[in-house]
Amino acid sequence: MAFEEVNSKVVRAHVSPATPVLARRGAMLGYDGQVTFRPVAGQGGGVGGFVGAALSGESNPMMATEGTGSVLYGFRGLHVTVVQLDGSGSLTCEADRLLAHDANLQTGVEFIGQGGIRAAVRGAMTGQGLFTTKVSGAGAVALLSHGGTYAIPVDGGGVAVDPQAYVGHVGNIQVDLSAKVGWRDAVGRGSGEAFQLKMSGQGTVYIQASEQKF
């Protein structure tokens, strides 16, 4: 099942018994057909699944949409980007970026603090904290952003992005924090670009058209 982009802030999902949808609770804008909505405890594991997301803070109230019909989703006027996963690589993002996704996709919480102090600092810079969410399998994911997203391919060489603009990435990508703090930054007269996320490997990184966080 693929999401149909109605406009930059609304997507439509065609729901059937074979293609239920998991969505952020309260994100339904309208629907037709015979569909029902029920709360789902936690992230991941399909419609009825649960992982310890609540313990990590990587958790959003989610609901399952089931039945037959089409449903419109949007949230607080934020922009929506549809990412199609083909099963070859996972999507990594913050849980609150998820608007909706195919219920057959698997979500899990990853502890990024095991990467040491640099990973911990990276988490702090991106707002992820010590945990992040991974979405894997084949299917569609609708992501939220401020101002829409721009996809940057990562193909071996390094790509640097602003931590505040980072939305997520797909593929086998390693993320590291690069800091170039000089005396001007220390006294508040720097360029404001002292920290960047260095992306390397193979995949795609998504940045938003804003440095505003959720």
Automatic annotation (TrEMBL):
Name by which UniProt lists this protein: AIM24 family protein
Organism lineage string: Bacteria, Bacillati, Actinomycetota, Actinomycetes, Propionibacteriales
InterPro entries: AIM24, AIM24_sf, Trp_RNA-bd_attenuator-like_dom
Source domain of life: Bacteria
Pfam entry (one): AIM24
Protein species of origin: Nocardioides aromaticivorans
